[in-house]
Design brief:
Radius of gyration: 18 Å
CATH topology: Ubiquitin-like (UB roll)
Shape: globular
Strand order of the largest sheet: 5-4-7
Number of helices: 3
Distance between the termini: 59 Å
Length: about 100
């Protein structure tokens, strides 16, 4: 084995041991955007990311709809915490404004 190959293997081994952002127990997260459930791998999402994932123009804005059908317009740059599991996507949804 060459010195370079050895270094590459060491780096790959190090990557396997990097901590996951959710700690030792990574949990799946899901978004509900325009009625579609979408997997999400981060603990937060911004208004701009919702617009990008939803595929609409930023001028249309984003409306958050909670489980009781209460609507709230999100501000630009707002950061929303995404809770793990499918249940979150059933309680909070976003749609174009």
């Amino acid at each position: 084995m060459t010195n370079h190959e050895s270094e590459v293997l060491e780096k790959e081994d190090e990557k396997k041991h990097l901590p996951h952002p959710d700690g030792d127990n990574p949990k799946k997260r899901f978004l509900c955007i325009d009625g579609k459930e979408i997997p999400w791998n981060k603990a937060t999402i911004t208004t701009e990311e919702i617009i990008q994932v939803g595929g609409w123009e930023p001028e249309q804005g984003v409306i958050e709809v909670d489980k009781d059908q209460n609507e709230r317009t999100l501000s630009a740059g707002e950061i929303i915490e995404i809770k793990p599991g499918h249940g979150f996507a059933k309680h909070i949804c976003w749609k174009r404004g």
